[in-house]
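User: Sequence recovery, please. Input:
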């Protein structure tokens, strides 16, 4: 989860849609089975994101971006100033 991007930001739209359908959606489906509610999934993903920020503050990896993409698929809204503080390269 931290070594590879689950969703290629610079890919064409049809590729992104395929990546969402074939990669992100099954992951979220499994998370729904385990946590049973979007709120619990969001809480867990936010905790992981906080941990990743602390652990990889100097050399960020794909983990934070992958968590953000999963949260976006859950339709979690982010304040733009929050995303700016993540120290990420969003063109993964």
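Assistant: Recovered sequence (92 residues):
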């Amino acid at each position: 989860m931290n070594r590879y991007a689950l969703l290629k930001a610079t890919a064409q739209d049809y590729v992104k849609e395929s990546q969402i359908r074939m990669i992100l959606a099954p992951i979220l489906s499994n998370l729904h089975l385990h946590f049973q509610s979007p709120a619990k999934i969001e809480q867990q993903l936010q905790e992981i994101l906080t941990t990743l920020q602390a652990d990889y503050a100097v050399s960020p990896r794909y983990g934070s971006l992958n968590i953000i993409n999963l949260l976006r698929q859950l339709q979690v809204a982010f304040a733009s100033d929050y995303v700016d503080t993540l120290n990420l390269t969003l063109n993964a």
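The two ends are 13 Å apart (CA to CA).
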